[in-house]
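The material for today's practical consists of a large collection of protein records. A record pairs a protein's sequence with a compact description of its fold. Instead of coordinates, the fold is spelled out as a row of discrete tokens. We will come back to this pairing of sequence and fold again and again. Here is such a record, shown just as it appears in the course material.
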Amino acid sequence: MKHTGKAIITCAVTGSIHTPSMSPYLPVTPDEIAEQAIEAVEAGAAVLHLHARDPIDGRPSPDPALYMQFLPRIKQQTDAIINITTGGAPGFSEDDRMAGPLAASPEMTSLNMGSMNFGFWPLADKFDWKHEWERELMLGSKRFPANHNFALIERIMTELGEGHGTRFEYECYDIGHLYSVKHFADLGLIKPPFLIQGIFGILGGLGAELENFFLMKQTADRLFGDDYIMSCFAVGRPQMKFLAQCALVGGSVRVGLEDSLYIGKGELAVSNAQQVRKVRQILDALDIPIATPEEAREILGTKGGDRVAF
């Protein structure tokens, strides 16, 4: 693993799985997404991972026009690295998932490294849903796997990586996903440094036990040597424990309402910035400095904020 001396804080602002009925603080409209993203950068985030939502009912949306209602505002008021999803949401076509990133030509996008069961259907009967689509989204995760096939992965690498100079946050939910990154690296389709985002606690992926974190790091060390930066997050209650452990071994961290709606046991986070401030306090207590956006650009090798299309 490449030891940079500083931890990069990524904030995943809204995602596509959590819904408005789960938290009144989840940003949905372009204004809410922009405001929470800007506050997160002010709190210490260097990278913003972004999805778009329909402002009427909060459902995930692939519409590039919605992205363009908040991306320019965020760029004008911060110097953060913008990282747009290519995972999209359940039900999106492959073209849907490419639409926003191709229109925006961002410095980074996410890149899920394998198809998988991605289960959150146990939540279906735990909330009083405001919108019928919310419960349907939950139940659908029991029947339909998340599609991240090799052809789509290669398309993203080619059209966005080679075509737009975009770098990737390689989202790895299992050990096999690391080998998929290595496969495409060996083909020459992607170049280091690789930002490996280890994800723990999703039903269908690696469980949220620290032993799994160490297994992922050891495997990545063997496959990539000093050519990668480790980052991680865990969904739900183990979130901060995983972030602290990753930072202790020289890695980076990801927080945000996409990954967890809570700031403590039973207490909803009131903003993305609140989670950023909490993890920053943990890093400060461990004497681990955080990277500024410009330092993160140097570490990750991104093309620069002046070469995006918004």
Q: What stands out?
A: The mean pLDDT is 97. Residues 9-307 form a domain with the TIM Barrel fold (CATH 3.20.20.70). The CA atoms of residues 26 and 32 lie 8 Å apart.
